[in-house]
Amino acid sequence: MTGTAARARPTVEGDRSTRAAVATMYRLTAGHRTAVVVAATLALVGSALGLAQPLVAKHAVDASGRGQPVWSLLLALTVLFVAEAATGAVSRFVLERMGEGVVRGLRHSLVARLLRLEMREYERHRRGDLISRVTTDTTVLREVVSQALVDLVTGALVAVGAVVLMVWLDPLLLFLVTLTVVVAAVVVASLLKGIRAASERMQSSVGAIAADLERALGALPMVRVHRAEEREAARIGERVEAAYGAGVRTAKLASLMSPAVELAVQGSFLIVLVIGGLRVNGEANTLGDLVAFLLYASYLVLPLSSVFRAVGLIQRGMGAYQRVEQALHLPAEPPSPPSGQPGQRPVRRTSRRAGRQDAARARTREPARRGAAHEEPAALALRDLDFGYDPSRPVLRGVTFSVPRRRQTALVGRSGAGKSTVFALVARFYEPDAGDLLFDGTPATTLSRAACRERIAVVDQNTYVVHGTLWDNIAYAAPDATECEVRRVVELAQLEDVVRRLPGGLRGMLGERGGTLSAGERQRVALARALLASPGLLLLDEPTSHLDAINETALTAVMTDIARERAVLVIAHRLSTVQHADQIVVLDDGRVAARGRHEELLAHSPVYRELAAGQMLRPIVTAPSPTTAVPPRPHGESGSAPGAPVTGPWPAGG
Ligand SMILES: Nc1ncnc2c1ncn2[C@@H]1O[C@H](COP(=O)(O)OP(=O)(O)OP(=O)(O)O)[C@@H](O)[C@H]1O
């Protein structure tokens, strides 16, 4: 987080007074205090130049009344006027540049925060809404900081100067002017709370518009096919109406402030004219005094009215500021643990297995330490891992297995068994509730998340392709890769055809989310990216689910080759792609049901047999077992070709 946001720690939560809002704005300008001092000094000089003008005008009027020459006074008046305008312009520029600087700081902090949130936060918040905090809310704040602060600073300074000189000229008239200003201030204060509430509603409605639009645009083919444009438009339309309603209410309240301010301006002028005129007639004051006082009244009332407006604007900005603050305080991934120190683990759930797990952990660490001397530790080891996205609904229970180096380990199981969740834990998107994760024998909690992620590359089911060139997408994990390295992974991932076809070849642009590629091509791009990263451990989640049989066979062979150099953990629904794996781990309802090679599992694991049978699209004859009651998994889910070859004991049509 940059300094601005860090220093702008909120008092806004709970304290909704105007003073707190102004204090927040003040804190926001931390780091820009030189600009504030320069601008305030200039404003002060400008005010002094402005306040001197009525005095000169008074002398000019009085001198002309006495028949004396006034040209030198008029010249002085002109110089004062020009100098005031120049200092005003410079001070406004300095303050507005500061406003831009404040918003720039907030945007940097927000972007840095939003890219590092805990994974769960992205599930709790809608992405469009988070994005709108960086774009719309900060834009509102820029106006507030640059306009409202300018008006507040300059307005307050000028008003104070005017009051001092008016006391000197005519305290009675000042008292009357003050009365009208106080009435206006009371009206303004009563409107501020409503303005703030309405503006909060408006900002969150704008965030909801962005989120809903993102939802529709992100699933456009689905929207089109189901002819849901109207429905989506109506849904977003409701948000637009809510934003309109809140905006109109804000405008209504803000416009009620105008009559109050006008009352102050016009009322004070009337009072000064009538009472001041009577006092000139009664010879208590000169005509010059009246002219000067009138000018000071304008110097008091006009800046005060801009102070009122500024306070209204600041209250409006508080709605946006609170949303920005809230985003800046969302939980982010913890920074790296100090070297050699265990990292933070979320509070563990106590379970009956806890004691047993500790003993198991002690046992598993022991061989890891001892093994260092004799044999190299596994690239990845999971020891008694427990995890649930929702603490009351465990997804993984006591999962234990290792992924040895230079071997291919396959993770299989029915849909929802927890396979992708294992990947999410290995990538440290979430922390396990209990148990240990070890990379090369080192507990993950003693490593930073970045250090863990450095050891892995993932091809997941979503096969992310971002807007940019094919090269950008492949070299995403290794921006310094050479042409030769990129071409090699293009070849391994069978992407040569795509490179040939794409206008611009490797430097050709892919559409938004890789929209110009087929699903299989996107999958191969993701695979090429992972291969280029060249990590010690390759995690492949259904890497061939979108591929035709020819590409699948070729890539299965590539994976086997890769596994000769590094550890590969592959999730597969199609057992045909992993039947030659060195080890197959069968997950069933979050538990490891069996482990072994294909033939061993066919012989001994009912769950595995059932998975294999499901892929033949017909029941298999097995010895009765508790798991045979579970219906075979439908084929279509994994996109497998019907009748895909599985193993010898399961002949097609058998
Ligand atoms: N982000 C999440 N928040 C809450 N629950 C989740 C989340 N992701 C997955 N789950 C739940 O966790 C369970 C395991 O999901 P997971 O994706 O790990 O299964 P899987 O074995 O990979 O399934 P598939 O083969 O269909 O991809 C499921 O019940 C799923 O609904």
Automatic annotation (TrEMBL):
<dbReference type="InterPro" id="IPR017871">
    <property type="entry name" value="ABC_transporter-like_CS"/>
</dbReference>
<feature type="transmembrane region" description="Helical">
    <location>
        <begin position="35"/>
        <end position="57"/>
    </location>
</feature>
<keyword id="KW-0067">ATP-binding</keyword>
<dbReference type="InterPro" id="IPR039421">
    <property type="entry name" value="Type_1_exporter"/>
</dbReference>
<keyword id="KW-0472">Membrane</keyword>
<comment type="similarity">
    <text>Belongs to the ABC transporter superfamily. Lipid exporter (TC 3.A.1.106) family.</text>
</comment>
<dbReference type="GO" id="GO:0016887">
    <property type="term" value="F:ATP hydrolysis activity"/>
</dbReference>
<dbReference type="GO" id="GO:0005524">
    <property type="term" value="F:ATP binding"/>
</dbReference>
<dbReference type="Pfam" id="PF00664">
    <property type="entry name" value="ABC_membrane"/>
</dbReference>
<dbReference type="InterPro" id="IPR027417">
    <property type="entry name" value="P-loop_NTPase"/>
</dbReference>
<protein>
    <submittedName>
        <fullName>ABC transporter ATP-binding protein</fullName>
    </submittedName>
</protein>
<feature type="region of interest" description="Disordered">
    <location>
        <begin position="330"/>
        <end position="375"/>
    </location>
</feature>
<dbReference type="InterPro" id="IPR003439">
    <property type="entry name" value="ABC_transporter-like_ATP-bd"/>
</dbReference>
<keyword id="KW-0812">Transmembrane</keyword>
<feature type="transmembrane region" description="Helical">
    <location>
        <begin position="174"/>
        <end position="192"/>
    </location>
</feature>
<feature type="domain" description="ABC transporter">
    <location>
        <begin position="380"/>
        <end position="614"/>
    </location>
</feature>
<dbReference type="Pfam" id="PF00005">
    <property type="entry name" value="ABC_tran"/>
</dbReference>
<feature type="transmembrane region" description="Helical">
    <location>
        <begin position="148"/>
        <end position="168"/>
    </location>
</feature>
<feature type="compositionally biased region" description="Basic and acidic residues">
    <location>
        <begin position="355"/>
        <end position="375"/>
    </location>
</feature>
<keyword id="KW-0547">Nucleotide-binding</keyword>
<feature type="transmembrane region" description="Helical">
    <location>
        <begin position="259"/>
        <end position="278"/>
    </location>
</feature>
<dbReference type="InterPro" id="IPR003593">
    <property type="entry name" value="AAA+_ATPase"/>
</dbReference>
<dbReference type="InterPro" id="IPR036640">
    <property type="entry name" value="ABC1_TM_sf"/>
</dbReference>
<keyword id="KW-1003">Cell membrane</keyword>
<feature type="transmembrane region" description="Helical">
    <location>
        <begin position="290"/>
        <end position="314"/>
    </location>
</feature>
<feature type="transmembrane region" description="Helical">
    <location>
        <begin position="69"/>
        <end position="95"/>
    </location>
</feature>
<dbReference type="GO" id="GO:0005886">
    <property type="term" value="C:plasma membrane"/>
</dbReference>
<dbReference type="InterPro" id="IPR011527">
    <property type="entry name" value="ABC1_TM_dom"/>
</dbReference>
<keyword id="KW-0813">Transport</keyword>
<feature type="domain" description="ABC transmembrane type-1">
    <location>
        <begin position="37"/>
        <end position="316"/>
    </location>
</feature>
<keyword id="KW-1133">Transmembrane helix</keyword>
<dbReference type="GO" id="GO:0015421">
    <property type="term" value="F:ABC-type oligopeptide transporter activity"/>
</dbReference>
<feature type="region of interest" description="Disordered">
    <location>
        <begin position="622"/>
        <end position="654"/>
    </location>
</feature>
